[in-house]
Amino acid sequence: MSGRVLVGVKRVIDYAVKIRVKPDHSGVVTEGVKHSMNPFCEIAVEEAVKMKEKKLIKEVVVVSCGPQQVQETIRTALAMGADRGIHVEVPAKEYESLGPLQVSKILAALAKKEEAQLVILGKQAIDGDCNQTGQMTAALLDWPQGTFASEVTLEGDKVKVVREIDGGLETIKINTPAVLTADLRLNTPRYATLPNIMKAKKKKIANVKPADLGVDLTSRLEVLRVDEPPQRQAGVKVETVDDLVGKLREAGRI
Amino acid sequence: MANPLRGEVVKLYKNLLYVGREYPKGATYFRERLKCAFMKNKDVTDPEKISTLVKRGNFVIKELEALYFLRKYRTMKQRYYGDEPVKK
């Protein structure tokens, strides 16, 4: 048992920022826009750090893939209490086509290399909303998976996961090593304070290239077009019930 | 004559400034208020009073952190768990 937890984090456009689509419909505007750590990844980091504080595990390693800027996100995770970081360097050009499959290949390779006992990820990122990375990582590693975790308990070499499913909760017990994905209610992530950010600057971030891990990043997907959601039509006020009925009939609702 | 608590006050100011970067009404709005709040007490020299004020500052940091967390949590809940009843 290595006692090592690998946590994947993603740098996304901040949740409070209004997303704008590029005029040529090829994607969304990311230049000059505030970025931060994906909220679900924060929950994943918090869970790993909590386990470490309870001395259930020995080390928390954060991983992020992308250009130079993702180091900021890794730093935030280190400030929250992770021990060291791994930056998988993917140039900005290739990063655009980096999908869940490519990331899960990287994570799977790293999980093997680091002999991780657990891999904890956010259930999905708020930019791509794919909700696939955790599942695919588990499949590639052929490890059990506990997705949408709302409660996690380590019990020796097993882990009990309470999962959020449609209309209720499901409790499963799986063997480690395993892949977990964090749901919103798993915990309340702590804030990365300034003193902690400063302390985190002393922690190490290793630089890795996808080629070193033997991972091929070619994507089989092609983005055809990105559009904004349709604008909501303005409502109308009606004077009388007859007007209302008339309007509804006009719209073919009754 | 530098007050021995000067370092602590400066540290508090820096920490508050950092937390304020994420303030919903903008960092500038926050900075102005922050400066006002500190300037208001610039003549306080009693170490006990300064300590109380620093404690209050640290409490404000905790409150802000809680505010940010709730704001984020609520937004996520609205976006991804929209049809469920809002849990208080």
TrEMBL record, chain A:
Subcellular locations according to the entry: Mitochondrion matrix
Superkingdom in the source lineage: Eukaryota
GO biological-process terms attached to the record: amino acid catabolic process; fatty acid beta-oxidation using acyl-CoA dehydrogenase
GO cellular component, one term: electron transfer flavoprotein complex
Domain annotation Electron transfer flavoprotein alpha/beta-subunit N-terminal: ranges: 25-217
A Pfam cross-reference name: ETF
Single Gene Ontology MF annotation: electron transfer activity
Assigned keywords, A-Z: Electron transport, Mitochondrion, Transport
Protein function: Heterodimeric electron transfer flavoprotein that accepts electrons from several mitochondrial dehydrogenases, including acyl-CoA dehydrogenases, glutaryl-CoA and sarcosine dehydrogenase. It transfers the electrons to the main mitochondrial respiratory chain via ETF-ubiquinone oxidoreductase. Required for normal mitochondrial fatty acid oxidation and normal amino acid metabolism. ETFB binds an AMP molecule that probably has a purely structural role.
Record family assignment: Belongs to the ETF beta-subunit/FixA family.
Subunit annotation: Heterodimer composed of ETFA and ETFB. Identified in a complex that contains ETFA, ETFB and ETFRF1. Interacts with ACADM. Heterodimer of an alpha and a beta subunit.
Protein name from the UniProt record: Electron transfer flavoprotein subunit beta
TrEMBL record, chain B:
Lineage top rank: taxon: Eukaryota
One Gene Ontology cellular component: mitochondrion
Single GO BP term: negative regulation of oxidative phosphorylation
One Pfam family cited in the UniProt record for this chain: Complex1_LYR
Domain Complex 1 LYR protein: 8-60
Family designation: Belongs to the complex I LYR family.
Protein known as: Complex 1 LYR protein domain-containing protein
Native organism taxonomy: Eukaryota, Metazoa, Chordata, Craniata, Vertebrata
